[in-house]
Amino acid sequence: MSSDDFGIGLVGAGFISREAHAPSVEYIPDARIAGIQNRTRENASSLAADCNQNGNSEPSIYGDGEIKALATDPDVDAIWVTTPNFTRLNAVKAVIEAVEDGADLQGIAVEKPIGRTVKEGNRLLELVDRVDLPHAYLENWPHEPDVGDMRSLLWEQGRDAGRPYIARSQAEHGGPHSGWFWDGRKQGGGALTDMLCHALANNEILLSDPNGSPPKAVSVTANTGTLKWDRNAYAEELEAAYDINFATDPVDDYASATIQYEDANGRPVISEASGSWCYVGSGVRRTIELLGPEYSGQVLSDETSSSVFFSDDLSNDEGWAEKQNATSGRMPVSAAEVVKGGYVAENRNAIESFRDEQNARLDLDDGCRILRLCMAAYKAAETGQEVDPRATDLTEYVPFPARK
Ligand SMILES: NC(=O)c1ccc[n+]([C@@H]2O[C@H](COP(=O)([O-])OP(=O)(O)OC[C@H]3O[C@@H](n4cnc5c(N)ncnc54)[C@H](OP(=O)(O)O)[C@@H]3O)[C@@H](O)[C@H]2O)c1
Q1: Taking residues 344-355, what's their average pLDDT?
Q2: Which of 22, 41, 300, 383 has its CA 20 to 30 A from that of 293?
Q3: Do the domain assignments include residue 182?
Q4: Band (315; pLDDT cuts 50, 70, 90)
Q5: Cα–Cα dist 382/20, whole Å
Q6: Within this chain, do residues 256 and 391 fall inside the same structural domain, yes or no?
C-alpha cells in the first residue's frame, strides 16, 4: 500500500459495499478502501476489519452524519455512494457541499438506481454538475466479462449481416435482504426499479453499436404484478422479518417491460426486460440474449442441464426422489465472483476515468436515462397504455407503489 494508491471513500457498509465493492478493489493495483462512513459505526468498523484482513488497507471510520468528514479525509480521492435509494440525494448533497467547502475529490460514483424518481435523478445530476466533478453510474451488468465478450463478438462478426435487433435480459431471485427494499416509498417502487434497472441498462448497451451512437427509445409497454409476497403466509414472514405490512402496502414482485428503439436508419430494435422476487431456487437466475439476422448469443447464470429445486418448506424434511438425502439445493459457487459479476471492471473503469479527470464509461447521465425508462415502464403498467418517452414529461411521475 502506498500513498499514491487511489483512495475510495465508501458511504454505506451494507451488502453491496461488503460483498462487491470492498472485495473487488482488492483486485485493482494502486487502489484501496481509504475510508468508510456508515449510520451504524460498528458496521463500518467490521467492514474496515475485513478490508484490513483481506486487502491490507486500513480505512478510517466515520459514523452517522459524517459524510462530509469522509469527503474531506486527505486519503480519500473519490466517494462511492452505496446507501439505500431514499438516502441517495442527501448523501450526494453532503459530498457536493464538502467539495464546495474545499474537499479535494476526483470523482463520485453512485449505485443503481440513481434515485427514486426522475426529479430526484435530475436533482442529483445538477448537484454533481455544479462542482464539475467526474462521475460514474455503478451498474455492473454491462461490465461483466461474459456480457462484454458476447457483445463485441456478435457486433464484430455479425456486422455484415446487419445489427442486432433484440436484446433480452431476465433476472429473478427470492426477494431482497433488507426491509427498505420492500417499502415502495423508500425504494421508489418494487421489482421493476430494483431488477429491471439492471436489465434495461444491459439491453441498451447490447443494442448500442460499439462504434456508433445508441438507439433512441420511442415506445415503452410494461406489466407489473404482485404474485407471491402479498399472500398471507408470505406477508407475515415479511412482517416478522422486517416489520412491514406488505399485505396492505404491497409493491410489485414481478415486472416486465418492452422498449422499442429506433436505430440510426429508423428501423425498430427491441429491448425485452423482465424480473421478479418470486424465484425459489439457489441464488439469482439470469438469462441474457442478443439476437441478430444471422446470429445469436446468450449468457446464462445456470448453464447446467435440466434440474429441479424444492424449498425446505415443501419437502417437510424428506427428499422427494428415491435415495435423495438432501432437502435443499446447493448454491453454485463461482471463483472470483466479483470478477465474473463485473464489479472489478466497473470499479477499475471508474478509478481510471477519475484519474484521467473523465466520467466513467457509464455515468450519471446514463443512470438518469435508465431511471426515465423505469418511470415510463411504471406509467405504462399503471395506465395499460404505451408510453412514448420522447413526448412524455415524467419529471413529476411517482410510481404507484411508491405513492402511499
Ligand atoms: N449492483 C448490484 O448488483 C447491487 C446489488 C445490491 C444492491 N445494490 C444497490 O446498492 C444500494 C444498497 O443496497 P444494499 O443491498 O447494500 O443495502 P443494505 O444491505 O440494506 O445496506 C444498506 C446500508 O445503508 C445503511 N443505511 C440504511 N438505512 C439508512 C439510512 N436511513 N440512512 C443512512 N444509511 C442507511 C445501512 O447502515 P446500517 O449498517 O446502519 O444498517 C447499510 O450500511 C441500493 O441502492 C441497491 O440498489 C446494487
Answers
A1: 98
A2: 300
A3: yes
A4: low
A5: 34
A6: yes
**CB 111 near ligand 1, within 6 Å:** yes
- Are 233 and 286 contained in the same domain? yes
* Residue of minimum CA distance from atom 36 in ligand 1: 14
Domain extent at residue 174: 142-333+368-402
Q: Is residue 346 part of a domain?
A: no
Instruction: For a ligand 1 pocket test, name from 21, 82, 182 the mutation site with the most ligand atoms within 8 angstroms of its C-beta.
Output: 82
Instruction: Say if ligand 1 is within 6 A of residue 144 CB.
Output: no
Asked whether residue 359 is domain-assigned, the answer is no
Distance 180 CA to ligand 1 centre (A): 9
Out of 15, 41, 64, 344, mutate this one to test ligand 1's pocket (max ligand atoms within 8 Å of CB): namely 15
Kindly report the pTM of this predicted structure: 0.94
Same domain, 259 and 388: yes
